[in-house]
């Protein structure tokens, strides 16, 4: 990884943050640094100009960094914010968890982030030793893919074409990915296989893209004090939040489930929940789960049992989702944090869809006013009531 | 029988044969992307006809978490597949390919120390006042808790097996033996699979392990790749007995003529595999963990912890997936609704209230905010700082002090699944470096 | 261990429905139905709440987990809430909860909401009848019901 020279964005980011810290305008910059594994980043808390040199920003920056804001004691906090991070910063202000003056939002224009579990599924029994993003100039059509790797495992990637690979089955080529805008960005992967033989592959950007990024409604920050662009340019924010999503939210995934029969849905829900080990990584990764005491931890009343009882786990998931109804910004941080591959989006996105369809509400675009459940309109939908 | 070589093609029949005598567990794929999720019961069964789902109903008499989710194969739950039921099952024939993945997501400990384990059932007839003389109280062993049939695990990695030797020190301690754990340990034979190509997250040698280590194993299998002209399309497994139980298992198999003895060239191939793996894993190892305790003893109040914990989210991904983490929490689980229907009273009067339920032992995690929370509201480990420190101290200082072994086997699961890439290898090296700078000595002095 | 007064899923089977009734309206409406001797099935178990806005969606889910065959939440008509906006706020939560439960495969008829005022004794009886009929046609709840492991 180290061989890669920092991108223009990263360079500007470092300089800018070093400046912020040097001038004492903020006490800490919460950003991302290079992680210890290929294609991994890790949160960095920069408190002096030197620390700023560790900052990076690219498509491996998968956490929602706003999650750290309520925990930090520092007076002035700068946050390197993708679109969804900035939406949670707004939401914090809306929910009075912090004051706007305390935050300095360094917006970054983001193209989406990686879902490591998709990468893992793709890798199968191959080991990944190096990975990076490459911009392919000119005709960067289809990736090399991987030629059926002998008996080796190829997990298969859900590409746009929904190719399902399986262990030892030939044809693990990712589906025809759609290249992002004009960039032809590819994931370049290298490593060795279960026999120790080297391999290399290049995957379309979309193939490893987190699901929530595919349906993101605002890739840039919703509110920012400064925005750093892809080419390293900085633009000062105008102190206003974006009026709303850049594009109409699409809920095809939700609609697909809605099209299934009630029994099919139950089966799918059950199968999703059966993977859960109740490690609560999803809860901890979500900026919205800042309750002093989570309902799962409460002993009086004891809302849910702590064992692996299936219904307790289901109730956990239903209520976790309900607690985020009207607040979830669909950043996907919970889905990416889950080690077991539970698709929490199944519930989150349904609530978002209903919030949008019934109340024309989408979280994270306001700093003032009331959250979805904190207000009402007299003519809200009433037809479901007897 | 000290060693037995089988072709990979024969694995299915070998496991099927074993299934007659043992419950056989194998690493399982997961319905999630990302590969194996845990260990599951091997079920000798025909491939389901195309388009027809195989068995998927829950079998609650066996380990619930591991036995059915994994009949599913690689429906990713992402993208195009969202929410749809996955009907792909892993045909057992593909097991050899599958075994080439390095580790399951969930550790082997689950088969011995499950996520949730009922340890006691109770029934209080005439609860809430009832007959009041205590005669209505009964306590019993919940059904299906202790394994009946002896078990064989096939394909555990050496680090997972080594983790059992760590857990043994806690649960099979002479002073405080844990019947549940011990009975499972006693009736399980473990066939390990050496790691030809360790994963980039593996660091077993830094904890005293080895990609071909035999600690905790009854049999160690070598995955021998196919060679030209050896008559196998996929290669062989060469199984070497480590314990007497392992020898008996191999004897049982050889009686059924399911394999042959290894040749000298096989032995050489094994040596070559071992050497290659050791060489590969040696690059990028953290400092050795065996001597970290010395440093840790002196840095309880070092500012390092404040910077270390900052990015930790406080989830249990690392500890639940860790094969050696063994903290648990015991809770009562009354059966809902059971308190009001005890059936008719013998005298034909109104129904007697009855309370039934179980006492369950669940995995706990030092990373949870409520870990060691007292009833009074006080928590000796109130913030992430104390909790992360506890995790590191427990593994590398307290456990070695108390039990004479490091409580980490270097499997790298926590490295791989931590959502914020808090890499324990880095922590280990940082701490070793603190020791090198003499911080520890100066503080403890 | 559930009571079995009559075979499940039959005409005679009486579902168990947890009814969260607002103190100021539906609860009084139920009272009126009683006083006026309006007949309705003995299927509901009433829990009086100060306001429909006080019904945490968790109560509903929890009732289902504890074995309720159905849940009814009933409050004051829009505009009539004793606390001015409790029912309006509740309506938003219920709309989303209802959708969510249906989304995961729980039959939508199991969870019902109604506005019944203190003067609507007949409406209360009708609502209970309707809800009971719908739940009865679904049969006993199976999904989400915690079975417990004791004996
Ligand atoms: S992170 Fe995944 S496994 Fe852990 S509690 Fe959440 S859904 Fe369950
Ligand atoms: S629930 Fe998940 S997707 Fe929604 S805001 Fe929280 S972390 Fe992001
Ligand atoms: S601490 Fe991490 S590397 Fe060590 S045994 Fe546990 S999960 Fe494996
Ligand atoms: S840590 Fe060692 S024993 Fe465990 S999987 Fe890796 S190489 Fe194998
Ligand atoms: S170290 Fe990582 S996996 Fe462990 S609790 Fe912290 S964030 Fe979770
Ligand atoms: S007082 Fe009846 S709904 Fe609020």
Structural description of this entry:
- The complex is a heterotrimer of chains A (386), B (445) and C (151).
- Chain A is of the alpha/beta class and 386 residues long.
- Chain A has ten helices and ten strands.
- Chain A folds into two domains: 229 residues, no CATH class; 123 residues, no CATH class.
- Helices cover 25% and strands 15% of the residues of chain A.
- The longest helix of chain A is centred in the N-terminal third of the chain and has 15 residues.
- About 11% of the residues of chain A have low confidence.
- Helix content of chain B is 30%, strand content 16%.
- Chain B starts with a strand and ends with a helix.
- About 13% of the residues of chain B have low confidence.
- Chain C is of the alpha/beta class and 151 residues long.
- Chain C has a four-stranded parallel β-sheet, sandwiched between helices.
- Chains in contact: A-B, A-C, B-C.
- Bound molecules: iron/sulfur cluster (SF4) (5 copies) and FE2/S2 (inorganic) cluster (FES).
Please give the radius of gyration of chain C in angstroms: 15 Å
| Global shape of chain B | globular
Instruction: Provide the residue-averaged pLDDT of chain C.
Output: 91
Number of helices of chain B: 14
Report the span from N to C terminus of chain B. Answer: 56 Å
Largest sheet of chain B: 7 strands, mixed
User: Which segments of chain B are poorly predicted (pLDDT under 50) over 5 or more consecutive residues?
Assistant: 31-36, 47-89, 339-348
Brief characterization of the structure:
By secondary structure, chain B is α/β, with parallel strands linked by helices.
List keywords for this structure.
heterotrimer; A: 386 residues; alpha/beta; 2 domains; seven-stranded mixed sheet; three-stranded antiparallel sheet; 10 helices; 25% helix; C: 151 residues; Rossmann fold; 4 strands; 15% strand; globular; disordered N terminus; binds iron/sulfur cluster; binds FE2/S2 (inorganic) cluster
Question: Helices, strands, pairings?
Answer:
The complex is a heterotrimer of chains A (about 375), B (about 450) and C (about 150).
Chain A: H1 8-22, E1 28-34, E2 41-46, E3 55-56, E4 77-81, H2 83-94, E5 103-108, H3 116-123, E6 127-135, E7 185-192, E8 198-204, H4 211-214, E9 226-228, E10 234-236, H5 252-258, H6 262-273, H7 281-285, H8 310-323, H9 333-337, H10 345-359
Parallel strand pairs in A: 1-4, 4-5, 5-9
Antiparallel strand pairs in A: 1-2, 1-3, 6-7, 7-8, 9-10
Chain B: E1 3-7, H1 11-21, E2 23-28, E3 38-41, H2 64-67, H3 95-98, E4 116-125, E5 137-140, E6 151-156, H4 158-171, H5 179-186, E7 188-193, E8 219-224, E9 236-241, H6 244-255, H7 264-282, H8 292-296, H9 304-309, H10 317-321, E10 328-334, E11 354-363, H11 384-403, H12 413-417, H13 424-436, H14 439-444
Chain C: E1 17-22, H1 26-35, E2 44-49, H2 57-65, E3 70-75, H3 86-103, E4 111-115, H4 121-138
Parallel strand pairs in C: 1-2, 1-3, 3-4
Helix pairs in contact in C: 1-4
The complex binds iron/sulfur cluster (5 copies) and FE2/S2 (inorganic) cluster (FES).
One iron/sulfur cluster binds near residues 321, 411, 413 and 424 of chain B.
